[in-house]
Design brief:
alpha/beta, 5-stranded mixed sheet
Length: about 100
């Protein structure tokens, strides 16, 4: 399964960083992915139009569907082998108030 990980440009940041959590889970599970570096600041139009919110990271599947939750939940989904279940489900989390 090849997916696109949409994340911030700060690839060097590790630790509790949300984008790193998800990327490291993808690495650990051997998921084939491509990194799409998104704008760090600004309106993030594509992210908002695709996920309903400005937050990173989010995953885009080959079929164009997206998956976005809090990074700890995304990492758990990936590590439990359930990432493919999110394909085509339109499972972007609703925008936070």
């Amino acid at each position: 399964m090849a997916v696109k990980l949409h994340r911030c440009r700060n690839l060097w940041v590790k630790g509790p960083h949300p984008c790193w959590k998800v990327q490291s889970a993808l690495d650990e599970e051997g998921v084939n992915y491509e990194i799409v570096k998104e704008k760090y600041l600004g309106p993030r139009e594509e992210t908002v139009s695709r996920t309903g919110q400005k937050r990173f990271p989010w995953i885009e599947f080959e079929d164009g569907s997206v998956y976005r939750e809090e990074s700890k939940d995304m990492a758990e989904t990936i590590r439990s082998g359930r990432l493919n279940e999110k394909r085509g489900s339109g499972s972007a989390a609703p925008a936070s108030p």
